[in-house]
Design brief:
The protein has about 200 residues and is an all-alpha fold. The protein is built from 9 helices and no strands.
Length: about 200
Amino acid sequence: MKAVKRHNLTKMWLMKIIDEREKNLDDRAYRNIQELEMYAKNTQSALLHLTLEMLGVRDIHADHAASHIGKAQGIVTCLRATPYHCTRRKVFLPMDICMLHGVSQEDFIRGKQEKNVRDVIYDIASQAHIHLEHARSFSKKVPVKAYPAFFCTVALDDYLYNMRKVDFNIFHPSLQKKSTLLPLYLYIRSWKKTY
């Protein structure tokens, strides 16, 4: 709490993160995409709001962008962690999307790569992409001072692009490798003053 006082941060954002993590301690799958988005909003977006405050940015458009970028980041994090969780016989992907495509948790645990499994991943990844595009749709209204908080979009775009290249096969080994070009992409975004 010293940091909250020292840097004049909004305590609410920190409390949202703590409350949401406490609710999530039971390690269960998300019932639907909205539940995953709510978790992402209360954790990832809250961290971005705190980052904006640390940068001295208090702007409604920056806050709106942070909300959508945080949701995208939470969704992508859930996707990236799926192969790891599956090796521990856990699946956290939204159950409604899995059921829509007739995919069971066991299909993921077994590492199946059929079209219906890839369709689940496509639908979830598309939601992350929608949030990123929405956050960018009003980037002209976001103060440039806020952009460093949003450079995490570079890694999100890279992962989503690489997932498209492997036709949304979440288990493809290339998705677990580090991208050596990320620093270059980050520099380009910084130089272009975009997120």
